[in-house]
Automatic annotation (TrEMBL):
InterPro entries: AGP_Transferase, Aminoglycoside_PTrfase, Kinase-like_dom_sf
Domain of life according to the entry: Bacteria
Gene3D superfamilies from the UniProt entry: 3.90.1200.10
SUPFAM superfamilies found in the cross-reference section: Protein kinase-like (PK-like)
UniProt keyword list: Kinase, Transferase
Listed GO MF terms: kinase activity
Name under which the protein is recorded: Aminoglycoside phosphotransferase (APT) family kinase protein
Organism: Plantactinospora soyae
Amino acid sequence: MDLDGFGFAGDDIRAVWDDAAATSEWPGPPVWVHGDLHPANVVVADGTLAGIVDFGALFAGDPAWDLGAAWLLLPEGGASRFFDSYAQADEATVRRARGLAAMKSLFLMLMGQNGDRGLPGGKPNWGPAGRSALDRVLKGL
């Protein structure tokens, strides 16, 4: 994927990923994780989370997989407020979550690009969601 066309520097994304990869592993016991939280897998009614769908990636593991949704689902500044209130995420978990959010943002952008090109399985409306999420990821908390 050509990131220049999206207005993002590959080095900035790589720095987020490298920071996440440099953290310690999740030290706790495995927890149930949806594994694929992004805008297309949540149901919102009247501005409130009403449900979660598509449990095909469900597994037990590092909660950072789902905590990355703070950047994917919340508006700018929302991740910071979320992690300030969610006392169970240490710094390493937040850093891993941010790296996973970057990866998922790129996935959304790729699916959007595939939709724009008319490729099978592509979803044109996912691209803007991915670009917006990646912008929030790169701004940090």
